[in-house]
Amino acid sequence: GLRERRLFSIAEGYALRRLKEPALPAITRSELTIELSRTLAEHATYRTGQEQEELWRQARGVIEDLLRASPDNPRADQLELQAAIILALRGASLRWRVELAPEDSRIHDQALLQLQSAVTRLLEVESRLHDRIKSVHALTPAEQAEGALNRAELRELARQATYRVAVAYLDLGRILPEGPNRTAAFHEANERFVQLSPPRSSDEISLTSRLYRAEIARRQSDPAAATALLDALERD
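The structure assignment produced for this chain is given below.
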């Protein structure tokens, strides 16, 4: 709630104070760390220069610190996904800077490298999640109490990973010049957005995926397809 009101410093201070509690349950520690990481990342988008870079570093660092401190963390899959998402969010932030200053080749190269790194990391996490879904067993009461993820939760994380991969590919396409690499990026993004927006689905990921499919059609000079997608979205 503090983050939604952009009270970032207060939210960060609250999370850090709670994380210092020695008897904090593992599941609460993981959830607080993820919320802290999300807050630092959003805070970074409202800052510039060295302060922004430090916030991005902290957003990823708090996740990596917890994973190092507790390698058997029952929420490790969720933490790994959040670390990968931070890479993609920083890439998206750089992509906006490219659109604001298209003549700055240094920022363009930074954005390209960051987004490529994010795609690679997200694909690794997505693959690992699908493997975990296949191998997960029915959780015991003790495992549930410790915060272990069940099959339904792992499926939702895998869906989020697929969505983040698609958005990262879309961001790549937005800054790549005309050519086969740009076409391939849009193709990879669109394939996943189609997968994420089956007929009669109306959750946020599905609706946003349909909107992005329309953007891809427009950027690929197919206004008829873009209009059809938007008309259907508006009807729904």
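Interim note for the steering committee: The mean pLDDT is 94. The CA atoms of residues 58 and 224 lie 44 Å apart.
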